[in-house]
Write a structure and sequence with these properties.
alpha/beta; 10 strands; 33% strand; Cytidine Deaminase, domain 2
């Protein structure tokens, strides 16, 4: 058996979570931990990603994102409770190319010391190409050479975990995004309140916090609810159409 990771299979639900989270902010990188399992195919090591775990970001900036070790431990516990393991991580590159930075390569290399099969995914977004927005996604590992750390590209394919079966937790994974963003904003506001903020400064912090929460509701939670309603109506129409087909076949 070849222990080098040959390919990564990701479910459409996890892909949707990674892309949606990346589009939530163009001023900060986002991070998602990936749960699933490793296996073998044609005597090669493969990874199956079936669940995404949105965690609190330790460092939030336009060119860097880090996850707290405590959050990593909680994510491992959550994955284990579902009979899965942490197999990778994904983060966004807003207004940046999809290529991993030296920080990304170092972070990925550190992850591989825990499991050499561990991989990273980068989602490049908010890049205009001739006026057209486009996504770029890469899956990679880090190789240590005499010239330093370099990227090893790993093929990434999107396919359902169980073709033909209805996935019930797909929306649950996406719903974790606004919940996490609200949590981070609340924690940031509480931390600012702990400082020496009085009078106008306290009112300013409260106003900024209210404005941020309003933006989250207006630009994310609201559109998400609208999308869910459209999806619900579409599903109900499909169910009605399938019921009619079944009735037609039964009468033959």
């Amino acid at each position: 058996m070849d222990d080098h990771l040959a390919i990564v299979y990701m479910t459409p639900e996890v892909q949707t979570t990674c892309l949606t989270y990346g589009l939530c902010t163009e001023k900060e990188e986002t991070l998602v931990l990936l749960a699933g399992y490793f296996g073998y195919e044609n005597f090669q090591t493969i990874a199956h990603v079936t669940r995404s775990i949105v965690t609190t970001r330790k460092d939030k900036s336009k060119d860097r994102v880090e996850v707290d070790p405590e959050q990593m431990s909680l994510a491992m516990t959550e994955a284990d409770s579902a009979g899965l393991n942490l197999v990778g991580w994904a983060h966004s590159h807003p207004h940046i190319t999809v290529n991993p930075s030296h920080v990304d390569l170092r972070t990925q290399f550190n992850m591989q010391t825990l499991d050499p099969r561990f991989f990273g995914i980068i989602v490049s977004c908010f890049n205009n190409d001739a006026g057209t927005q486009r996504f770029q996604v890469t899956c990679f590992q880090t190789i240590e050479t005499e010239h330093g750390q370099i990227e090893r590209v790993v093929p990434l394919l999107i396919r359902p975990a169980n073709p033909g079966l209805l996935v019930t937790d797909g929306l649950t994974q996406v719903q974790a995004i606004p919940r996490q963003l609200f949590k981070e904003e609340a924690e940031g506001f509480d931390n600012r309140q702990c400082g020496p903020t009085t009078g106008l400064a306290a009112h300013l912090c409260a106003g900024i916090h209210t404005h941020t929460l309003s933006n989250l509701v207006d630009k994310m939670t609201g559109p998400m609810l609208t999308h869910l309603k459209i999806r619900y109506d579409t599903n109900m129409k499909q169910i009605e159409m399938l019921d009619k087909r079944r009735g037609t076949r039964s009468s033959i």
